[in-house]
Amino acid sequence: MQKLRPVLEDAGFDDVRTYLQSGNVVLSSKAAPVKVARDCERLIADAFGLNIAVVVRTRAELAGVVKRNPLAKVAEDPKRYQVSFLERKPSAALVRKLEEVAVAAEHVVAVGREIYAWHPEGVARSKLWAQLAGKGLGVTATARNWTTVTKLLELADSG
Length: 159
Known about the structure:
Layout: H1 4-10, E1 14-19, E2 24-28, H2 33-48, H3 59-68, E3 81-86, H4 92-101, E4 107-111, E5 114-118, H5 127-133, E6 141-145, H6 146-158
Helix pairs in contact: 3-6
Protein backbone atom coordinates (compact mmCIF):
# COMPACT_ATOMS: atom_id res chain seq x y z
CA MET A 1 0.00 0.00 0.00
CA GLN A 2 2.91 2.35 0.63
CA LYS A 3 4.02 1.80 -2.98
CA LEU A 4 0.51 2.42 -4.29
CA ARG A 5 0.14 5.88 -2.74
CA PRO A 6 2.81 7.60 -4.91
CA VAL A 7 1.52 5.86 -8.05
CA LEU A 8 -1.92 7.36 -7.46
CA GLU A 9 -0.52 10.76 -6.52
CA ASP A 10 1.69 10.85 -9.63
CA ALA A 11 -1.41 10.10 -11.72
CA GLY A 12 -3.06 13.26 -10.40
CA PHE A 13 -5.21 12.00 -7.54
CA ASP A 14 -5.28 14.23 -4.45
CA ASP A 15 -5.49 13.50 -0.71
CA VAL A 16 -4.41 9.87 -1.24
CA ARG A 17 -4.59 7.88 1.99
CA THR A 18 -4.54 4.15 2.55
CA TYR A 19 -5.98 2.08 5.38
CA LEU A 20 -4.53 -1.26 6.40
CA GLN A 21 -2.91 -3.51 3.82
CA SER A 22 -6.02 -4.75 2.07
CA GLY A 23 -6.64 -2.37 -0.80
CA ASN A 24 -8.44 0.41 1.04
CA VAL A 25 -7.72 3.77 -0.55
CA VAL A 26 -9.36 7.13 0.06
CA LEU A 27 -8.58 9.84 -2.49
CA SER A 28 -9.97 12.96 -4.10
CA SER A 29 -10.78 13.32 -7.77
CA LYS A 30 -13.09 15.38 -9.94
CA ALA A 31 -13.52 12.41 -12.30
CA ALA A 32 -16.61 10.21 -12.27
CA PRO A 33 -16.36 7.13 -10.03
CA VAL A 34 -16.39 4.74 -13.01
CA LYS A 35 -13.43 6.57 -14.54
CA VAL A 36 -11.58 6.58 -11.20
CA ALA A 37 -12.08 2.81 -10.94
CA ARG A 38 -10.83 2.15 -14.50
CA ASP A 39 -7.87 4.52 -14.06
CA CYS A 40 -6.88 2.84 -10.78
CA GLU A 41 -7.13 -0.61 -12.37
CA ARG A 42 -4.86 0.51 -15.21
CA LEU A 43 -2.37 2.15 -12.85
CA ILE A 44 -2.18 -0.96 -10.65
CA ALA A 45 -1.69 -3.18 -13.71
CA ASP A 46 1.02 -0.92 -15.15
CA ALA A 47 2.89 -0.36 -11.88
CA PHE A 48 2.59 -3.77 -10.25
CA GLY A 49 1.56 -6.21 -12.99
CA LEU A 50 -1.65 -7.08 -11.13
CA ASN A 51 -5.12 -7.27 -12.66
CA ILE A 52 -7.23 -6.07 -9.74
CA ALA A 53 -10.88 -5.08 -10.08
CA VAL A 54 -11.52 -1.76 -8.34
CA VAL A 55 -14.84 -0.75 -6.78
CA VAL A 56 -15.32 2.95 -6.03
CA ARG A 57 -17.76 4.81 -3.82
CA THR A 58 -17.98 8.57 -3.39
CA ARG A 59 -17.80 10.04 0.08
CA ALA A 60 -21.56 10.70 -0.05
CA GLU A 61 -22.28 7.11 -1.12
CA LEU A 62 -20.11 5.74 1.68
CA ALA A 63 -21.85 8.01 4.19
CA GLY A 64 -25.17 6.62 2.93
CA VAL A 65 -23.95 3.06 3.49
CA VAL A 66 -23.06 3.90 7.09
CA LYS A 67 -26.25 5.85 7.73
CA ARG A 68 -28.52 3.08 6.37
CA ASN A 69 -26.93 0.38 8.56
CA PRO A 70 -29.95 -1.94 8.22
CA LEU A 71 -28.58 -4.53 10.62
CA ALA A 72 -27.65 -2.14 13.44
CA LYS A 73 -30.04 -3.80 15.88
CA VAL A 74 -28.54 -7.29 15.43
CA ALA A 75 -24.92 -6.76 14.37
CA GLU A 76 -23.14 -6.46 17.70
CA ASP A 77 -19.54 -7.18 16.64
CA PRO A 78 -18.23 -4.90 13.87
CA LYS A 79 -15.67 -7.52 12.80
CA ARG A 80 -18.47 -10.00 12.03
CA TYR A 81 -20.60 -7.42 10.23
CA GLN A 82 -19.65 -7.18 6.57
CA VAL A 83 -20.63 -4.88 3.75
CA SER A 84 -20.07 -6.09 0.20
CA PHE A 85 -19.68 -3.25 -2.28
CA LEU A 86 -20.82 -4.30 -5.73
CA GLU A 87 -20.11 -2.71 -9.08
CA ARG A 88 -23.83 -2.86 -9.87
CA LYS A 89 -27.06 -3.72 -8.09
CA PRO A 90 -27.44 -7.47 -7.53
CA SER A 91 -30.25 -9.34 -9.25
CA ALA A 92 -33.27 -10.44 -7.25
CA ALA A 93 -32.28 -14.05 -7.97
CA LEU A 94 -28.83 -13.50 -6.44
CA VAL A 95 -30.32 -11.90 -3.32
CA ARG A 96 -32.72 -14.88 -2.94
CA LYS A 97 -29.78 -17.29 -3.31
CA LEU A 98 -27.85 -15.46 -0.57
CA GLU A 99 -30.89 -15.46 1.72
CA GLU A 100 -31.27 -19.22 1.18
CA VAL A 101 -27.68 -20.06 2.19
CA ALA A 102 -27.76 -17.88 5.32
CA VAL A 103 -28.20 -19.93 8.48
CA ALA A 104 -30.87 -18.94 10.99
CA ALA A 105 -28.60 -16.65 13.05
CA GLU A 106 -27.19 -14.85 10.00
CA HIS A 107 -28.83 -11.88 8.33
CA VAL A 108 -28.37 -10.54 4.84
CA VAL A 109 -29.87 -7.35 3.41
CA ALA A 110 -29.30 -5.94 -0.07
CA VAL A 111 -29.73 -2.20 -0.52
CA GLY A 112 -28.79 -0.72 -3.87
CA ARG A 113 -25.23 -1.78 -4.73
CA GLU A 114 -24.41 -2.99 -1.22
CA ILE A 115 -25.06 -6.25 0.59
CA TYR A 116 -24.96 -6.09 4.38
CA ALA A 117 -24.29 -9.41 6.11
CA TRP A 118 -24.18 -10.34 9.79
CA HIS A 119 -22.20 -13.46 10.65
CA PRO A 120 -22.61 -13.94 14.44
CA GLU A 121 -20.60 -17.18 14.43
CA GLY A 122 -17.83 -15.64 12.31
CA VAL A 123 -17.05 -15.87 8.62
CA ALA A 124 -14.69 -18.88 8.63
CA ARG A 125 -17.37 -21.56 8.14
CA SER A 126 -20.20 -19.38 6.87
CA LYS A 127 -21.74 -20.58 3.61
CA LEU A 128 -23.17 -17.08 3.19
CA TRP A 129 -19.71 -15.56 3.47
CA ALA A 130 -18.33 -18.13 1.03
CA GLN A 131 -20.93 -16.99 -1.51
CA LEU A 132 -20.24 -13.31 -0.88
CA ALA A 133 -16.46 -13.73 -1.07
CA GLY A 134 -16.47 -15.98 -4.12
CA LYS A 135 -16.68 -15.26 -7.80
CA GLY A 136 -20.21 -16.68 -7.95
CA LEU A 137 -21.83 -13.27 -7.44
CA GLY A 138 -21.54 -12.56 -11.15
CA VAL A 139 -20.55 -8.97 -10.41
CA THR A 140 -17.33 -7.31 -9.32
CA ALA A 141 -17.45 -6.92 -5.55
CA THR A 142 -15.30 -6.31 -2.51
CA ALA A 143 -16.26 -6.73 1.14
CA ARG A 144 -15.16 -4.88 4.25
CA ASN A 145 -16.07 -5.35 7.89
CA TRP A 146 -17.98 -2.59 9.66
CA THR A 147 -14.88 -1.34 11.47
CA THR A 148 -13.17 -0.75 8.12
CA VAL A 149 -16.27 0.81 6.52
CA THR A 150 -16.62 3.39 9.29
CA LYS A 151 -12.86 4.07 9.36
CA LEU A 152 -12.87 4.74 5.61
CA LEU A 153 -15.68 7.26 6.10
CA GLU A 154 -13.63 8.93 8.86
CA LEU A 155 -10.66 9.14 6.48
CA ALA A 156 -12.85 10.60 3.74
CA ASP A 157 -14.14 13.21 6.18
CA SER A 158 -10.65 14.17 7.36
CA GLY A 159 -9.24 14.89 3.89
